Amino acid sequence: MSITLTENAAKHVRNFLTKRGKGVGLRVGVRTSGCSGMAYKLEFADAVDSEDLQFESHGVTVLVDQQSLPYINGMELDYAREGLNEGFKFNNPNVKDSCGCGESFKV
User: So what's the pLDDT on residue 102?
Assistant: First the structure.
């Protein structure tokens, strides 16, 4: 079981944590939302919770709660720039369907 970051995503997270001046890593999870049922949630974590599972990827600690892991296990998180747009891309092998707007997914 694991969640990984590409080198670009890890670099972006490390740079952001440095600019913030605090933080232990990136928290990744899912929540119920959207037209397909689930949506990703990302936040910079300032502490490790006792329920967190920890993964290390390219020098970045990735924290995942145990309830979210079955939905995102094996996911690779990328950070890309396409034209004027930039952001995280979720390469999740568990997704069976997603909504047209790309905000939610179904497993």
Answer: 54
